[in-house]
């Protein structure tokens, strides 16, 4: 609520996507007025249909890289911007590499310009992918990364890195209230069944009794954060002025190998599936785990949902929505 009694008006880019939809639901439940923007290249219209029943939600199908963004009559009196728009799964950012670069560079610049014009606070969702295949473990925010610019993941990794540069410039030169969240693997049943990310793949394969496909020997490790914890963190970033001009890791510091994740999901689903091994994709990181000391200090945040609990919730929803 604003000081004048009006509802806060918040833009969410990528509102039809996994995190955008979940964030919009949370903010609407808190009494905010949401203007969602999405070009629906990877987002789902069914998410917009669910949100549109709420009187405080409005939607624009639009490409935020477009110059005419600033002429849209709906964009007035903006208080906050959550810039989530971007393909986030390798399946999709490798399918749309140039669009992925543009949304994280030109699109990010446009949203920062809107923040400057409206004196709005902004959270930019960056990614742990900026660390590449890290040579230090766990990763801290001051680690500069080990990213290959000449490979299939570079469009996403380097696009996000340059997006962070735009954030730095708008903050340091123009005083824009920008906060950068480096998101590590986030999951829930809200992930598309065909998303291609590891948990949605494993759960769907296990429930269908199909082979569970592990890439490489499965010794590579990841840290998985349940979506409720991730949403809570980025909400805290928006609210907390101490986060202005800061990059903060958001993720669960508990680590698991991909093979052990496959075994755990097989066990939790009581699946007869066999675990099979396929060649490891190029530039697939060997380890990924956040140091969240900064999030603890600035936001007083750390994850609450364990992997076992989060997977059980995810599996239950997938099971209930299965046609079988």
TrEMBL record:
<keyword id="KW-0812">Transmembrane</keyword>
<dbReference type="InterPro" id="IPR036291">
    <property type="entry name" value="NAD(P)-bd_dom_sf"/>
</dbReference>
<keyword id="KW-0325">Glycoprotein</keyword>
<dbReference type="GO" id="GO:0033320">
    <property type="term" value="P:UDP-D-xylose biosynthetic process"/>
</dbReference>
<keyword id="KW-0210">Decarboxylase</keyword>
<keyword id="KW-0520">NAD</keyword>
<comment type="pathway">
    <text>Nucleotide-sugar biosynthesis; UDP-alpha-D-xylose biosynthesis; UDP-alpha-D-xylose from UDP-alpha-D-glucuronate: step 1/1.</text>
</comment>
<dbReference type="GO" id="GO:0070403">
    <property type="term" value="F:NAD+ binding"/>
</dbReference>
<keyword id="KW-0456">Lyase</keyword>
<dbReference type="GO" id="GO:0042732">
    <property type="term" value="P:D-xylose metabolic process"/>
</dbReference>
<dbReference type="InterPro" id="IPR016040">
    <property type="entry name" value="NAD(P)-bd_dom"/>
</dbReference>
<keyword id="KW-1133">Transmembrane helix</keyword>
<comment type="similarity">
    <text>Belongs to the NAD(P)-dependent epimerase/dehydratase family. UDP-glucuronic acid decarboxylase subfamily.</text>
</comment>
<dbReference type="GO" id="GO:0005737">
    <property type="term" value="C:cytoplasm"/>
</dbReference>
<dbReference type="InterPro" id="IPR044516">
    <property type="entry name" value="UXS-like"/>
</dbReference>
<dbReference type="GO" id="GO:0048040">
    <property type="term" value="F:UDP-glucuronate decarboxylase activity"/>
</dbReference>
<keyword id="KW-0472">Membrane</keyword>
<dbReference type="Pfam" id="PF16363">
    <property type="entry name" value="GDP_Man_Dehyd"/>
</dbReference>
<keyword id="KW-0735">Signal-anchor</keyword>
<feature type="domain" description="NAD(P)-binding">
    <location>
        <begin position="11"/>
        <end position="314"/>
    </location>
</feature>
<keyword id="KW-0333">Golgi apparatus</keyword>
<protein>
    <recommendedName>
        <fullName>UDP-glucuronate decarboxylase</fullName>
        <ecNumber>4.1.1.35</ecNumber>
    </recommendedName>
</protein>
